[in-house]
Automatic annotation (TrEMBL):
This is tRNA pseudouridine synthase B. CDD domains: PseudoU_synth_EcTruB. Responsible for synthesis of pseudouridine from uracil-55 in the psi GC loop of transfer RNAs. It catalyses: uridine(55) in tRNA = pseudouridine(55) in tRNA.
Amino acid sequence: MDGFIVLDKPVGITSHDVVSAVRRTLRQKKAGHTGTLDPFATGVLPVAIGEGTKAIPFLDEGIKEYQATMVLGSVTDTQDCTGTVIRQSEWEDLAPERIVAAIQSFVGRQSQLPPMFSAVKRNGVPLYKLARKGEEVERTARDIEIYSIAVELVELPLVTFTVSCSRGTYVRALASDIGEALGCGAHLTALRRTKSGPFVIDHALRLDEFRRIAEAGDIERHVTAPGEALDHLRMLCLADEGAERVRHGMAPRLSDFTAMLENVRVGEQLRLTYGGHLLAIAESRGALWSENSKNLRLIRVFNEV
């Protein structure tokens, strides 16, 4: 079994716990997740199995969507409800219109400082390990983009919103920054991921559903094939001889394809398929095609999936 299963991670367990459950249930040695969710967070967690693990680096998860609830007037050391409250401020005088305006001001490109309680590494050490020792170190701000924020509910001090953002955005940090902009501070009390690239919550299975379907032997219909998960990459179909070359780790030649693509860019990644199956991901080395095996570089070769 090869591909991706989208699970709805429950609150209170780690993303690694979910992968372990999948590995045990399917008796699958090769498994891994994309886009870690904090234990208090829920929602879309794509789990790769088998050859799907090879496809993880090529996924287009550039757009993520979350439903979040923050509490105004309370700051914690983790920027979420799992931490210790370190500051409290008045929020009663805040008008809903001012809150909405402050939130909307965060739409667009910006720099964001990663939280101390995060997996970002400094000198090879994850920041959260330093934070647990009570240390705070300088961090480098990252460029992110908030594509949209919709305020769903204002029941002060709670504010619920839906945010669409770029990969690498910390919604905890966003809530904290919004709180600072309002002058009262804030932290997240709930976070649910509803989209991660091509994977959406409507297709996600709860863990109990996953186990039941797997035990019934019907899980394969819920598996997204690697080639389908990578359909943002343009596809080149191999002829018989080309497929054999790729299977042996050799880059294909011009005559190894059934048809060519136009306007191939230098550095563009392409799916190489044969008979509808994904064989490899390759990178173009030249903008113009020629009868030259060096115009493509194989990045990853798959068992036919």
